[in-house]
Amino acid sequence: MNKLFISGSFLLIIFISSCKSHNTAVNNTIVDTTRFLPVMDFIASDIKDVKSTPYFIYKIRTLDKKKDSTNLSVADFELFAHSFLQFDITKAPLKSQFRESTFHDNTTKSNTFIYTPLNATAEIRNITVLLDESTDRPKNIFIQTIKQIKDTSIIERLQWKPRKSFRITTITQAKGYNREESNYVSWNEVSN
Fold first, then answer.
1. Which of 34, 104, 143, 147 could cysteine-pair with 154, CB 3.0–4.6 Å?
2. Structural domain contains residue 75
3. CA end-to-end span of the chain, whole Å?
4. CA 68 to CA 85: how far, in whole Å?
């Protein structure tokens, strides 16, 4: 009976100790599951294609309504094209500063994704992506930025037509001064 008492006591102690609450740290890390379109990946893919394919690349520069055209080397193409890559809102710290809205546009047969900043004074004012409704491939990517430097506003409008061309338009405005420059770059498009 003594052995039975000791065995029962031992089991009771094990049972009580297993019922104690265990203080374990709770991981309160918030995981960001928001998925933005990989806009910069589309553009980087085109840049890679141009670097590896012998396209005829040309640029048309319009400055204050005067046009000039020239051939572009791949290196010069890359310099212009990399202007787009600085606006990657899919990564921190920019990702948390934007919201996405979407709608279907029957007129353009596109699914439209619009990224707008939470802060109305952010440099990137919006990014708009039109995806072809049947292929889900981008048809057009638009980026608009505004910089304020002292009394001068610099508005930049960028448009990327995947696998074809892009355009960068820069408008500089100050009191009594207005200058508009547009650079259209094509590598796989018949006309602009």
1. 147
2. yes
3. 100
4. 26
On whether residue 5 sits in a domain, the answer given is no
Is 125 contained in some domain?
A: yes
Give tens-digit pLDDT for 51-93: 999 999 999 999 988 999 999 999 999 999 999 998 889 888 8
136 three-state secondary structure: coil
Q: CB under 8 Å to 170, separation ≥6 — which residues?
A: 154, 155, 156, 180, 181, 182
User: Is the residue at 142 inside a domain?
Assistant: yes
Torsion over CA: 47, 52, 55, 58 (sign) = positive
Q: In 3D, which of 36, 114, 48 has the Cα closest to residue 82?
A: 48
Complete edge-to-edge strand list for the sheet that includes strand 98-105: 66-71, 58-63, 177-186, 165-174, 152-161, 138-149, 124-132, 110-117, 98-105
Note the pTM of the prediction, 2 decimals.
Answer: 0.79
Residue 68: which domain range? 35-186
Indicate the number of domains in the chain: 1
Q: Where are the alpha helices (DSSP H) in 21-173?
A: 39-52, 74-85
DSSP characters for 152-173? EEEEEEEEEETTTEEEEEEEEE
